Fold this protein.
Amino acid sequence: MLNIPYVSLRNNKTDKVLIFTKITFYVVFVIFCLFVVRYQYFLLDYINWGDEAETVVAVKMMSSGMKLYSEIFNHHGPLTFLPGLLVEKFIGVDIRGHRVIIAFFQILALISVCKAQYLTSNFQRIVAFVCCAVIVIICFPEGFGHTYQYQTLAGIMLTIVLSIYVIPAILNSEKLTSTSVFLGGVLLSSLPFLAITYLPVAGLLYIAALRKSFAKYLVVGTVLGVFVNLSFLGYFGSFAGFWAFHIYLNAEILPEYTGLQPGWMLITTAIQALTSDFSHLFALLFILNGAFILSKSELKFPWRTCFVIAGLCSLLIRGPGFHGMPFFYATLPFIPFILSGIDDKSRSHIYITIGVMFLCIVKLSLVMPGDKFKITSNPVATENSQSEFSILVKEFTEKDDKIIAYSFQTPEYIVSNRLPASGYFFYLPWQAKYNENPKFGVSIDPCKQISEGRPKVMLLDKWLVWDRYPWESYASCIQNIADKNYWQVPGKPYYIRKDLFATGDYFASNNRVMTPTY
């Protein structure tokens, strides 16, 4: 009997220590979240990426009333432009503003991962959030995973659909809800509208998660997803142009230049990408670990799990690099499988987690040598920044004037705050090749548009594309227009229309061109 109070006091002390430890854990987590927000703020201005600027410029052209694919050339699927267009219709923003929308979508993706069935406590959900957040904001930006482009959108959509629908449908379909199945149908049917290359992964995941008891909700979601995307394409774009530029040009013409041919070569490319470096192998291990657990829920041959693995590997058919970013996003829903053994009643587990969060906070704080310089030294193009070309543009043009920035200088439109003078607002060899034999009655003639629009200022950098395709081989007519009607700024790829001043010696005595600041 004398030992009973001693044991009681000891247990009481242990409980107090555990409670204090948990409070410390939550306080550190709040601090972690604050540093995540701060780091994300810096990411809004990190890395100037031409493909992202291309997307933003296309959105601005659509917002001005031009039709996608018929009046605006672009390779990418129509859904890529829907989020940006919704923003531009209400308020004109630069690249940073569109990245805010991407950051919001990323939060939705992280929340969906934390809601995974395999996580049984709030402690595990917080740990999952910490792991995924660190990966998304520290690792993914190296592959442009924070930028506004279709690869990022595809990755976020896959993260959500895997978390709320596909994995639960295989793991324990009885816990599925009609809402998650409906949203799964919407997202899976929308993926191919980002890029037709996502049709395999969408189809394989669709089949893998199909359950008869929820089929009606899936059908409704699928029909709605297809209807919304087709309506958007029909109203803001062109069906014929979609087939011409996104399907035909990408499938028939572009492979002649990239060397990436359809068929078995795509499978070979995916396999090579999976083994190309440690990051791909590490991501594959995450997926295979989760797939092994998923396969146990299938009574016979785990064909559903196999379909999921095959679908995710198909994301690498264009090889490693930024095109494979959706594959890395798709690993996030498999992280909860490795966290299921974490116990919030174990002080050692909590201590380790607190320690890991402190290390993450140090990394996010940007106090380590070189970290802050790296993330701030390469700012994006904005309407408030300037370049040599933008200074020239603002000197010789008005707000409503249009310009040209070739071959692929899309950020210059944003910095100059001017729209392009041609639907071909960038110009590369495969576009010239397409114009030799246009399909479905869809053709954009940049030479004609430049001759008729007579932009006051042009940038022609005469890019030797991939060190194989010289400017003269694909843009001779544009160069002829420039030589005939424009003065070239000495030593610069900038052209000013001749009738704007009397002589080409203007720039010899006027230091008008300045050093870039973006």
